[in-house]
Amino acid sequence: MKTPRFLAAAFTAALFAVAPLGAQAQAYPAKPLTLVIPFAAGGPTDLLGRALAQSMGTALGQTVVVENRAGAGGTLASAYVARATNDGYTLLLHHIGMSTAPGLYRKLAFDPLKDFEYVGQVADVPMTLVGRPDLPAKTPQELIAYLKQDGAKVNLAHAGLGAASQLCGMLLQQAVGAQSTTVPYQGTAPALTALIGGQVDVMCDQTMQTVPHIKAGKVKLYGVTTRERLKPLPEAMTLREAGLKDFEVVVWHGVYAPKGTPAPVMAALNTALKSALKDPALLKRLDEVGVQVVPEPLQTPEGLRTHLKAEIDRWGALIRQAGTYAD
């Protein structure tokens, strides 16, 4: 029979064994976090990610370090985070490309619906259709007519397979019923530089990247891809107004963590995300380039997961129709 003294000693030992675990859970986050961006520094997702990292870091009381892991349309970074330790210290900010990857790639090293926990959606970034400064078409209607008549002569730039600019370009070609000569680049920045320099004719790109160049007169603005006109570019027609019925592309973004990240950690991350998306400094910065924070019901794990599944279904059908794949 065990003595009271033995039982007391056993209880004390168990208490000391458990205490560090409880303290560790309560202390989260106890060190800086890493927010992985699947595209090059200076691009639209990077700009959004750095602004978000600063605001989330303030909410969490820790530094959130941005790490760029570009390549393969965002799939390299996604696979990296899917395999990362699921302790809440490695996160992924990805855009619409998370939903197109299953359709674009015959083999993926991750499953968007099985290999992640979902922190929540962040923001919708509109896109613009822009042209080189000396492109003869003066209006969006003239550009659409030119694309329909001589599409093969038009060099349509994009930032690489799976990039939002490529997806928008696919929709544009489908909408006008003509194929252009697509010119891929390794990122948004070099594609936009080529457009400004006149090496290519047109491209779609996110407002976070194009608004400064539009206002500086470095590129010609033909329209925006949203249902309504944008506050920062009130003079720009929507492409729907210009004659492309039902044309709409919005680049949504979400934050992900590796599968199995503990529920209390996920709750802390979601709370920090929601707090960041109320930060006046962040909201002002996003408003200046037409970026809209998503409604609060979408800033949730379920909001992101539901939207991701719907977008996988939507873009998968379009990609199969276009016949665009990567090995």
TrEMBL record:
Arranged from A to Z, the UniProt key words for this protein are: Signal
Query: Which N-terminal stretch is annotated as signal sequence?
Result: 1-25
InterPro entries per record = BUG (IPR005064), Bug_dom1 (IPR042100)
Judging by the UniProt lineage, the source's domain of life is Bacteria
Q: Please give the family membership noted in the entry.
A: Belongs to the UPF0065 (bug) family.
What's the protein called, per UniProt?
Tripartite tricarboxylate transporter substrate-binding protein
